[in-house]
Design a protein that fits this description.
- By secondary structure, the protein is of the alpha+beta class.
- The protein is about 35% helix and about 20% strand.
- The protein has five helices and four strands.
- A four-stranded antiparallel β-sheet has the order 2-3-1-4.
- A hairpin with a 7-residue loop joins β2 and β3.
- α1 packs across α3 and α2 crosses α3.
- The relative contact order is 0.16.
- The model has no long low-confidence stretch (mean pLDDT about 95).
Length: about 160
């Protein structure tokens, strides 16, 4: 079992700021939290090494790239074995239209996928030529997103 890193108020502020602006310079970050640049950078590196910061990404507007159809897809599997799940997960990770894949409980589905595609034809191709071709997939239930009400990439840091 991995021991969690103890974080203080500086670390919490660093995490909060970096989630809002991962492109901020170390100098600006240090000024905002009231530390000099060297200790600030050491803290950021420690947060990265502890796995609290897992990476940095640019957020992209999919619609401006012509990807205007978002769907949530519930996937049911024929067998609930580690091997079957591992096969599904190694297959689904290679499909670029899949933004998220969650193993879930409490539903009729085993997995919930969040996908984004150009249009309904694109969705049909994804479903028929990629997702349902994965060994073990026995059921698919799709809900199309009408509007994204809340989209956060930021985790609350208390």
């Amino acid at each position: 079992m991995k021991i969690l890193m103890k974080i203080d108020r500086y670390d919490k502020v660093i995490l909060d700021i970096l989630q809002s602006d991962g492109h901020i310079s170390n100098q600006d970050l240090a000024e905002r939290i009231g530390l000099s640049p060297a200790p600030c950078l050491r803290r950021v590196k420690a947060l990265e090494q502890a796995g609290l910061i897992t990476g940095y990404q640019a957020l992209v507007d999919a619609k401006k790239l012509g990807l205007s159809l978002m769907a949530l897809i519930g996937i049911s599997m024929d067998q609930h074995t580690p091997e079957r799940f591992a096969n599904f997960e190694s297959s689904i990770i290679t499909i670029p239209e899949v933004l998220e894949c969650l193993l879930i409980t409490g539903q009729q589905s085993d997995y919930l996928l969040k996908v984004v595609v150009k249009d309904m034809d694109d969705y049909q191709h994804l479903l028929l030529h990629k997702i349902t071709k994965i060994v073990g997939v026995t059921g698919v239930h799709t809900s199309f997103v009408l509007r994204n009400v809340v989209a956060r990439a930021k985790v609350r840091v208390d």
